[in-house]
């Protein structure tokens, strides 16, 4: 062999010697969606795909690249006997297709990307679901029903979008853009003629002019169907990715333990290691039926409510309807109203039943102590009941649409200009906002396991009392009802805050244990911004300047009529008087939220300006490598100054938890302010009236402008060859956890990534094969194999999830053939704080992390929450085994930098070289110009190779 080696040369000889590597270094990228070539440090022409498809793929260097002679210490050269592969999963989080559209481009792709923005609130609600106390056991004496509350909140978000679609289609276009049919005597050449006309919004497409000839009932029925189609479109957008990779999971899932094997021999297992966590797509699909059933029910109620009271002028205002006798039998049982009344009753009953089933659904995996056979297979879950509710909702909506279509040509809009154009929309948006506010208040105490026996009656009392106070506002009864509502709400707030403050672990949990509140408030705020912007944007578009129906002065009327006549010279001139100018009316709730959101946004911006000024004042204070150490002297050289500048920028970004908390609180205050604003039907005069008019004018423009900028950013983003979701970083973070709170949320890519990554590890180690079918030489070869899972940023979270998923494999939790190398990860500082039951210190076995200080120069100085006692088997324990002399050796290394704006240690800031965490160089020594290393480039650092070599030696010295 040696003469042949000399003949082939050193590079070819090395390729022959390393033909059978025993260690697999498997790299996993993070939030930046690093391309495979960059992951491996090679050119695109030097790598090849060895497994996978266009969504999830494994890549390695080509034989030609492996045989290329490279200088000593080149980071592109793996250690001897190590095979380096890269796993690319970013396409699952960022790409999708639409049935019957496929690889859309141009305008179609832009519209689809804009629709993806609309489902962001649903994704945030799903994140809030996993931020609750996810490990609360079932059947305890005083459950918090936290999962049910978050799912209820998700249902309210769906109904808010139903109300938005109905407002646009029915309340604006149907009730206001098509006026009543009017007969007018006009002068024509040779005499006088009677002309029938319907005044319409000229901004509408010309193709809709023919709708003016239809009866008002037929037109309203079509618009109601379009509103339902808008909701179905939103549901389809959230399901586009699920068809692409959730169904592949069963094909990539590895062999598990034999049925009937206990899951917690010794200590209990963390939630991510329990069967069923990544496999409940069928179980959670019942939410799809439930939300659509509620959507059709609400649309039917809105239609029936309007047509029931269309002929009752005293009932056109929502406030005081009960006091004016609108809820009595003389209205509901009158001739022709029984059908509408029945629709309203059935619709409300269906909404209550669906809400109950949404709250009662349980999607959590098996509790510890269970046996694998105790689980009901996901595919065996029955969806018959919820499918039946969906069909009932469709039938109820169909009944309402059919009845509306045959209701004749009576005017759709009440003659009273002060009334809400479509009566069913008078109070629904405000009611949904109030419900979201109450649920956000409850969410403050969810992590403290606020007893459902307390918050459920309080929520029912608050919402029910508010409805009663709305219907009967006057007299002693109204005062008593409002007082009861106020007491219930304040009492609920006090109980929730007190429960959170008394919770012992709030210092080591995200937002001091108020994570569900922050995330739900943010979801509600984003949903209301998008909803209000949609409604106000449509109104601004329809109120086109210069249109005859929007003219405000005689000279404008004349000019507009002349323009119309000039456009159609073949028509005989008809002299008519222009109708009075029409101003479109926006239902309550949307304008008020726009005003409040802009007001609190201004306060938030001022706070950010103060924070930036504070950081500028602290620029002269150098930051040490280890928080709490003596600060270094003031830098004088260019390199030291650049390093300090990078550390300050990273320290500012490390306050992300605090900043997101401020954003969530801001949205919550905007929602509360929307409810506290005076009744828009009551005219306000004087200074406050002028101030209110000015606020409405500028806030509505601001919200519409933000919406337009968002649409422009997402329509222009992505590739023409693929539907790239906007703001990829947001999707990477938001779509990691399973979809369990909202069926229209973006699908969870980890439901394929985690099993697929596990499958690659098991294939390399031979765990997916029956040893009895292998030859003796093959068994010996597989017995010597090892794996180093190398993960960057969010990839560290994926890697830990994959290791936990392997605990039910043949080797069990403590597999000494596997090691973990992470760098620039958010496991401890973010995921461990936001989702303690999934990635917290009791799961990882690491030191808890506190939240960053907002006003200090170094956000991590003095942040040291107490230790955690874990009752479960931890990841660190599973990766620890006795070393030489019986000293425990942990097969986990992690790299970090103070200049990394989104990367942190996984255990503690330390540089003693003895623990898990090790600092990496902050200056890129291989760059031509001075470059401060930040979140990328860890594998090129010398510390990476040192820790990789140490893990390889540890693995080769363990076991066989």
UniProtKB/TrEMBL annotation:
Keyword line: Membrane, Transmembrane, Transmembrane helix
UniProt entry tagged with the keyword Oxidoreductase: no
Keyword Kinase set for record: no
Transmembrane segments annotated in the record for this chain: 107-131, 152-175, 221-245, 286-308, 340-359, 380-402, 422-446, 453-473, 479-497, 517-542, 593-613, 659-678, 698-717, 787-807
Protein name in UniProt: Fungal lipase-like domain-containing protein
